[in-house]
Amino acid sequence: MKIPNITIQQLLEAGVHLGHKTLRWNPKMKKYIFGKRDSIHIIDLTQTLELTKVALEQVYNTITNNGKILFVSTKKQASEAIAEVAKETDQYFVNYRWLGGMLTNWGTISGSIKKMKKYEADLVSENRGFTKKELLKMSVKKDKLERSLGGIAEMKKTPDLVFIIDTNYESLAIAESVKLGIPIIAILDSNSNPDNIDYPIPGNDDARRSIDLYCNLIKETIINAKSSIPAPEPKKVSVPDTKDAVQGKTVQEKDREKLDQKFSKDKKGTLN
Predict the structure, then answer these.
(1) Helix, strand, coil: what percent of the chain each, to 5?
(2) Which fold has domain 8-103+158-228?
(3) I want to staple 190 with a disulfide (CB 3.0 to 4.6 A). Which of 41, 91, 127, 178 is the partner?
(4) What is the phi/psi pair of residue 209, to 5°?
């Protein structure tokens, strides 16, 4: 298993240790807090380091088992970063708005995805036969659906792992994942709720440097995991030899041969 090397120094430089003001903390995060400085909670990076490795191992195992990961973060600071990683690694993402039932009501959501794809096809078709007004309405509807569903347009089934940045924003995604038994990796700041998170990573979920570090680590892990998957062996084309060809004759052909042989013997006997 090849996961990226990470040090406490890297975490410090990215500001992962900086939590929120002490007045805004969630007491459930107490075990992950190292202390406080200038009324700001400091996250225990020794725990962050170990828990990050555990989470990356889960990412690695998911990919090597041909699983898929859904990246979720609708907050402004992380939305672009998770979309970029998901696209580069051929995974899925939600970065605009989590629609209720995105996982638990997949039938309805997949229907909306089909509608979005139909709008796309109609808009690029040469013989559209639509008025300018109809095309404009269609374009607006397509764009609206694409913002929410574009990142999961190719998702055929529920994901095997969900990665979340800022659990306070993504309570619906967490609830639906828990209901379906999908494991969750989440970045937990000092004001987060760690309940129902299978693979917590205590750390700053607001600073862009921290977010970029998390995303790059997961991206590198996915790339390493994909490179470790052995390529499928080419199928061997078997060419039947003469013996196999004879054995593969039909019953009628075999009976015909017997008759020919018998006739040949009878004919020889007559001549003698």
Answers:
(1) 55, 10, 35
(2) Rossmann fold (3.40.50)
(3) 41
(4) -65, -40
